[in-house]
Amino acid sequence: MARARQRWLSALLIPLALAIAVVFGSVQAGASVSLPPKSAEEILAMIARTEVRALSGTMEQNAELGLPELPSSGSGTVPGAASAVEFLAGSHTARVYVDGPLKARLQILDRMAERDVVLNGRELWFYNSKDNSATHLTVPAPSLAELKDTLPTRPTPDRPAQAIPTPEAMAGRFLASLDASTEVTVGEAASVAGRSVYSLVLNPRSSETLVDSVSIDVDSETGLPLGVEVRAKGQAEPAYSLAYTQLDLSTPDAALFDFTPPQGATITEKVLPARPVPTMTLPSEPLHDLSLKAPAHREQVMGQGWDSVIALPAGSAPAEFTSNPQLSQALLPVDGGRALTTSLVSVLVLDDGRVFAGMVPLERLQTAAAAQ
After folding, report:
1. Which helix (H) or strand (E) holds 318?
2. Rounded to an integer, what distance in angstroms lies between the CA atom of residue 241 and that of residue 63?
3. Strand 355-358 and strand 346-350: pairing?
4. DSSP state of 253
5. Has residue 256 got a pLDDT over 70?
6. What is the pLDDT of residues 38-85, one digit of tens each?
7. Model-level pTM?
């Protein structure tokens, strides 16, 4: 039950096991289009039946969480990879290429630079053109099979979006947790990346959560989710969203998944642990720490559904809470610790090292902390 209750939180709070420098993207859907009417159940069935296994495209991300824009640093746990905090504010663009579950390439387009994440079977590369640095990881064979069960889409071995975070992956986290705490309706059909889409709208039946609604744009032809938009209560613009701006459903050129570091690059060799598991960090399903280490302690889930709070024991606070100057400034002093409050997520870091987080107001976290 604890695992089921934390799924809503994991959509925004728990990164992928492999955590491939997540870039979420957003563009608002285009003008309304005319499509045959479908019920929410029929759209859900379309998503479940989608057979897209290969694609290439461009994703854009926009975060309006009420934080100042944090600069791209590439200072994640893996050299050359993305820092978790830089995706908490502003916009980011990435190109994505997928061919099955174990061939993927993500190109994060920074200002005057580019970061690449290339997965090809057991070979994983992170590259940062800014300082011409590369990190090479060899994935142990057992981890590849275990990885398929930890990623946010349905755990079938032929799901393409399991290899990297995509709108389908983000949508999968929300849809995996549909229950009586959520009203599911159908919005207006629209256009995303030049393709007509149905809009599936998830409305929390809760007065405690910060989330107003989640909209999932579903391709009318293939059933593939092309965009996800999360709205916060009391905020006119979407707080967080992810969508394709360009999309091609043909198989990408195989050469895209062969990576050779440029001449003169500084190369670091690493090995993934035998059992990669998700670690707690800031929003999503997303905004994901590139830590490849298993957590020393298991998180505790307090409450249910949208009102859930994740509690982590002392020593579990992400290092960037103290190492990133911009994020440290965003942490405000409160009784017994410091807190990060955004329009969608609140995080409470107590002086004793415990961490509480959820898609709820800060007061709910403080109540949960006092009850322990």
Report:
1. none
2. 7
3. antiparallel
4. P
5. yes
6. 999 999 999 999 999 899 999 998 888 876 555 544 444 444 444 445
7. 0.76
